[in-house]
Design a protein that fits this description.
There is one protein chain. By secondary structure, this protein is of the alpha/beta class. Strand 9 and strand 10 form a beta hairpin. The radius of gyration is 45 Å and the shape is elongated. The chain starts with 7 loop residues before the first strand and ends in a 6-residue tail after the last helix. Its EC number is 2.7.13.3.
């Protein structure tokens, strides 16, 4: 701790002898009383001392030339910092009542008459020194108390913050634990069904109808697994900012209408009253991602609305926004859950979501995709049983004329028995065998290779019309396969289709830069694959 300064006494007198006498008297008691003595020869000198020091008491001569004692006292007490310094006037004359009144009005606390009696001077000075010492001690205690209070407040805030962070971490860990348990459950269900169906097909005596049903189960559950993986990958990419939008002007109403038509055509909305009111509204967006938003919102409404319920889908323009609203008459959202419906993992841990199945990350993905488009998404509900409404807002752009789409040709490049020859370059044995069998069933002549080097050699030897190339190949990867085939005049005319598990926009660019004609993300549906093959051979080769 810093050393406490001793109280100071200022003696002001223009007479050198009187000044010396008073300071000498005071100095002999200075060590005993623990104070310091300073001297001033005039009122101006006294004011300079007051500017530099704090004083326990000032002994001020009344009769001084120039600035007398009364004027000096008034000047000292006009300054805020020295306004409360006690002043004892010293005079050689008996002061009448008017002089005393004038002195007290200037802030005097007492009078001493010369010749000064040492014992009286000692007693009076000791009182003010003691007061100054006590005041300084109180100030020091007050500073310590303030500092301690500040430290305790900071400690309390830190503890509160640590408690909140710990509770938040515990909640997040609990939510993640539930999510992982849920993910395991969601993956095991379709895997169990696929395993059972595959075993059933191999059993002796199984009926043709049983085999057909088992195949449909395998197909349906494989699609379900693919959708789970897609949701996880999309959410991970969106949260890490790795989704790049392929923007283009589009009419949101037309996109939503197409999405609704898919639901009606597949019968997914058959048990509901699905109504729509779609006013045109143009946005600059990624059609695939906006369809994903619309599908997630409609799926959410179907999931939480009992059969026979009503689902309303509307689009309209409002100021500078294009708005999509999906309203249902379903189970609604509790007030405590409503602020968190777009949070990652939160919905997945709710009992409602678990009762309906799914990972509960669809709305988190919707919010992130909306933000990437410069928009936002909001949820509203009257509570349990009151239904819910989700409202998407996207920045509106001026109306754009729809680009003319050339009519698609029907059939493959050669049609019927003249289908293009296929080279499949795939290192996964099961995947290569199953795709070869499927394409063969559709009438394609298929050759295969198990790695990149073998694939380049097979392409040079067989000269296929189309090469299906897996990107993650051993030896040389699919990108290098494409570059080598394009660089060789003998194989540069082969149509190249990339098969990959990577679906980001930058992955698409890298695929196309390597010389591929098309880019398909695994798992690839056979209809999607045959369409890609047919479309690929109808257009000029990319060089």
């Amino acid at each position: 701790m810093p050393k406490t300064e001793k109280p100071k006494i200022l003696v002001v007198n223009d007479d050198a002898n009187s000044l010396f006498a008073l300071t000498s008297l005071l100095t002999q008691w200075a060590e005993q009383e623990a104070y310091e003595v300073l001297a001033a020869r005039s009122g101006q000198d006294a004011l300079r001392q007051v500017l530099m020091h704090d004083f326990a008491v000032i002994l001020l001569d009344v009769n001084m030339p120039g600035m007398d004692g009364f004027e000096t006292a008034e000047a000292i007490h006009q300054r805020a910092r020295s306004a409360n310094i006690p002043i004892i006037f010293i005079t050689a004359f008996l002061a009448d009542e008017l002089d005393r009144l004038k002195a007290y009005q200037r802030g005097a606390v007492d009078f001493l008459f010369t010749p000064v009696i040492p014992q009286v001077l000692h007693a009076k000075v000791a009182v003010f020194v003691a007061l100054a010492t006590k005041n300084e001690e109180l100030k020091r205690q007050a500073r310590q108390l303030s500092q301690r209070t500040t430290e305790l407040t900071a400690t309390n805030e830190r503890l509160t913050r640590e408690i909140e962070e710990r509770e938040s971490a515990e909640r997040q860990n609990h939510a993640k634990d539930e999510f992982l348990a849920m993910l395991g459950h969601e993956l095991r269900n379709p895997l169990s069904a696929i395993s059972s169906a595959a075993s059933l097909i191999g059993l002796p005596g199984v009926s043709a109808d049983g085999v057909g049903r088992a195949r449909k189960i395998i197909q349906r559950q494989s699609q379900h697994l693919g959708s789970i993986v897609d949701d996880l990958l999309d959410l991970s990419r969106a949260m890490s900012g790795k989704i790049l939008l392929n923007r283009a002007p589009l009419d949101l109403a037309a996109l939503v209408a197409q999405t609704l038509e898919t639901y009606r055509a597949t019968g997914r909305s058959a048990d509901y009253e699905l109504v729509n009111d779609l006013d045109p509204g143009w946005v600059d967006g990624d059609a695939t991602r906006l369809e994903q938003i619309a599908s997630n919102l409609i799926d959410n409404a179907l999931k939480y609305t009992p059969a026979g319920g009503r689902i309303e889908v509307r689009t309209w323009t409002e100021n500078d926004d294009v708005v999509l609203s999906v309203r249902d008459t379903g189970v609604g959202i509790a007030a405590d859950l409503l602020p968190h419906v777009f949070d990652v993992f939160v919905q997945g841990s709710s009992t409602l979501d678990r009762a309906q199945g799914g990972l509960g990350i669809g709305l988190s993905l919707v919010r992130r995709l909306a933000e990437l488009h410069g928009g936002d998404i909001a949820a509203d509900s009257k509570g349990p049983g009151g239904g819910s409404t989700f409202t998407l807002r996207l920045p509106r752009i001026e109306h754009q004329a729809a680009p003319a789409v050339p009519p698609a040709e029907s059939g493959g490049a050669h049609g019927g028995a003249g289908r293009p020859n296929i080279l499949l370059i795939e290192d996964n044995d099961d995947g290569r065998e199953m795709m070869t069998m499927m394409l063969s069933c559709y009438g394609y002549e298929v050759h295969s290779a198990a790695d990149g080097h073998e694939g380049v050699a097979a392409a040079a030897r067989l000269r296929p019309d189309v090469a299906l190339v897996d990107i993650g190949l051993p030896g040389i990867d699919g990108y290098e396969v494409a570059r080598r085939l394009r660089a060789d005049p003998a194989t540069s005319g082969i149509r190249l289709i990339a098969l990959t598990g990577y679906g980001l926009a930058e992955d698409l660019r890298r695929v196309m830069d390597a010389g591929f004609d098309r880019h398909l993300v695994k798992p690839v549906d056979i209809d999607q694959l045959t369409e890609a093959i047919g479309g690929c051979v109808r257009v000029p080769v990319r060089q």
